[in-house]
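REQUEST
  id: r-88c1
  op: predict_structure
  target: Nuclear receptor subfamily 6 group a member 1
  payload:
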Amino acid sequence: MEILSDHSQDVSVPDDRAEQRTCLICGDRATGLHYGIISCEGCKGFFKRSICNKRVYRCSRDKNCVMSRKQRNRCQYCRLLKCLQMGMNRKAIREDGMPGGRNKSIGPVQISEEEIERIMSGQEFEEEANHWSNHGDSDHSSPGNRASESNQPSPGSTLSSSRSVELNGFMAFREQYMGMSVPPHYQYIPHLFSYSAHSPLLPPQARSLDPQSYSLIHQLVSAEDLEPLGTPMLIEDGYAVTQAELFALLCRLADELLFRQIAWIKKLPFFCELSIKDYTCLLSSTWQELILLSSLTVYSKQIFGELADVTAKYSPSDEELHRFSDEGMEVIERLIYLYHKFHQLKVSNEEYACMKAINFLNQGFH
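RESPONSE
  id: r-88c1
  status: 200
  body:
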C-alpha cells in the first residue's frame, strides 16, 4: 500500500531563484509557487491539511504569534491565519486532498477579514458541508473532517518515529526505545487496562463459490487471529502520559502486531511449501503492509480508538514539537485518510483474508 504525496497546484522555482526566495509565511527557503504564493514545502503541506480536513484551531495567546521556521509549529491558528492573509488560495486544493493536475493560472487571492474569520471559526466549512449535504453528495468531504481542534499536536503525531523500511529497521527502533531508562515490561502505565472489543469485520457474505475456492478462503479466514489485541490501551481519565511511557506502549503494541503476523503466516495452508529463504524474504518485504492492513480492519477500534485516547493524554514539550516535521504530520494524515476509506468499504472477513494473502505473496511489487 503506497501512501501518496501531494504535488497539486504548485510550480517549482528554478534553483538559482529558489535560493533567493523565502516563504511568505515563515521565512524558510521557498520551493515554489504553492496555492498562489511563494512558500516552503512545510507551509504548503500545512495549508493543504488544514483546508482538506476543515481544521478549526485555537490560539492560546493574542492571535499575533510570531511565524518563523523554528516557531511555526507553536501556533497552528496563527499559521493558518497568515496563510490566508498572505493570499493562499484554498480553491486550488482538491477536496479529497489527493494529487491532481497542475494549474499555473492559480494565483493569490484577497479575501475580506469577514471571510477569513468565517474560515478560522469553522463557519465557512459548515456552510459548505450543508451545501453538499443538501445536494445529496454525502461522500464529498474528505476523511478527517472534524468540527474543532485545539492548538495541540495531533495525537497520532507521536507515532511518526516508528516508521522504518525493513524488518531490521523495526527491530532497531524497538531496541532504541526499549533501552530507555524506564521500568521493564509494562508496569510503567499502571492506569492502563484491557477491554475485549469485537472485531469490526463483517461476517461472510452469501455468494456462489466453487468448492475449491470456498475451501481456500475458509482456511485463510481460519488462520487469522480475530481476538482483540492483548496490549492494554485503555487509560484512566486525568492521567498524564510521559514520552517514555508512550514509546514503551508503542513498542509493545508493535511487538504484538508483528508476532501476530508471523503466527498468521505459519497457519497459512501453503506455509509448509515455503522454503526458509522464501518465508524470510516475503516477511521482511511485507510486514509493514500486513500490520497496516490489520490495523485498518481487524484492530481498527483499538488502534484508532483506544490508542488515540492514550496519545491524546501525552503533551510534548516545545522542543519535541519542533523536532516533529511537517512530513511526519503528512504521514499521519494519510493514515487517517486510509482508515476512513477502509471504514467506508465495510470489508468482510473473507475479503480481508484474501487481501492479506495476496499482499503477502506479491512481494515482488513492493
